[in-house]
Specification:
alpha/beta; Rossmann fold; seven-stranded parallel beta sheet; 12 strands; globular
Length: 321
């Protein structure tokens, strides 16, 4: 029987694993955050009152088996001297247009999934735009994903609130159903506080993650994130995730054991002062999880990334156990 894998996170980290994963015989679902308020996504969220489309766009492209020329058009971003359309991606505009035409973001995504010939399913964690909030370890309160990221502060916890005051947050029923029906649930890779946790803290999602019988996997980041996770070990990343989940739910932690060359990462290019995440398998074991420590490193573009093929192979093997 084809294994059902659900991946939870944002539109930058997940595609690295999704692209090779769809080459396997798996039933893949991506659940994507709706708290992005920066760039084209943020502008469309504010002016059209839809969920931010950027992460969904990137996931659709990662799952697509369609024509490359169409995908290039879908990903095309207008130049900064184009005034009104500056920095907007064509795919973001199409998602906004189809949402307005159909009156439902899920229907808009389904139509685009058909056009792009995607192999899998993509669901927003909620069908309404949400605002990410954070409390720093020093007691300061921050609002908005972009502001939280830019603050470079050590964070204690995050939560989401509706964009419209007084509105109740409702998790996507498709996302909840996918979680409850999954064989394997995968968190990340991606920013812990602004890509992964904004999904986990949505009411209904946390409860589904506590109820599901699926094995749950956290793909630990290779590098720390400036301010937010400075000096965090893989076990400390795990502890924050489990705390927001409300229980020690993670069964496996995938952690890279290959050293990142000291002079390879261009911190100026990436705007990030970071260090390699240190492994702490004993603390992971104490949290009820198993550490799977391997060479998951891919060095490219003056940065340290996950080798998607190697990670995908391990994920598939976990569904076979």
């Amino acid at each position: 029987m084809t294994a059902k894998i659900v991946m939870i996170g944002g539109g930058s980290g997940l595609p690295v694993i999704i692209r090779p994963l769809i080459q396997h015989d798996v039933d893949l679902t991506a659940i994507v955050t709706v708290a992005d308020d920066g760039g084209s996504s943020g502008l469309l969220r504010d002016y059209v009152n839809i969920i931010p489309p950027g992460d969904i766009r990137n996931i659709l492209v990662a799952m697509s088996e369609g024509d490359q020329e169409l995908l290039d058009l879908f990903q095309y971003r207008f130049k900064t001297n184009d005034a009104f359309l500056a920095k907007h991606a064509v795919g973001n505009l199409l998602i906004a247009a189809l949402t307005e035409m159909t009156g439902d973001i899920s229907e808009a995504i389904a139509r685009l999934a058909h056009y792009l010939k995607i192999k899998g399913h993509v669901f927003p964690v909620a069908k309404q735009p949400l605002i990410l909030h954070a409390k720093t370890k020093s007691g300061q309160f921050l609002e908005g994903e972009a502001a939280i990221t830019a603050a470079h502060q050590s964070l204690d916890h995050v939560w989401v609130e509706p964009n419209d005051e007084g509105e109740e947050i409702v998790a996507s029923p498709e996302a909840i159903a996918a979680i409850l029906d999954a064989d394997l649930i995968v968190f990340g890779p991606g920013s812990l506080f602004t890509s992964i946790l904004p999904n986990v803290v949505v009411p209904g999602i946390k409860e589904a993650l506590q109820e599901t019988k699926a094995k749950q996997v956290y793909i630990a980041n290779i590098m720390t994130q400036k301010g937010e996770t400075d000096s965090y070990t893989d076990a400390e990343h795990l502890a924050v995730l489990n705390r927001h989940l409300g229980q020690n739910l993670i069964d496996y932690v995938l952690t890279n054991d290959q050293e990142v060359p000291a002079d390879f990462v261009d911190y100026q290019k990436w705007g990030e002062i970071s260090k390699q995440v240190v492994q702490d398998p004993e603390k992971i074991r104490q949290a009820g999880a198993k550490s799977i420590s391997k060479d998951f490193l891919a060095l490219r573009d003056a940065g340290a990334f996950h080798d998607g093929d190697k990670v995908a192979d391990v994920l598939v093997s976990l569904t076979e156990e």
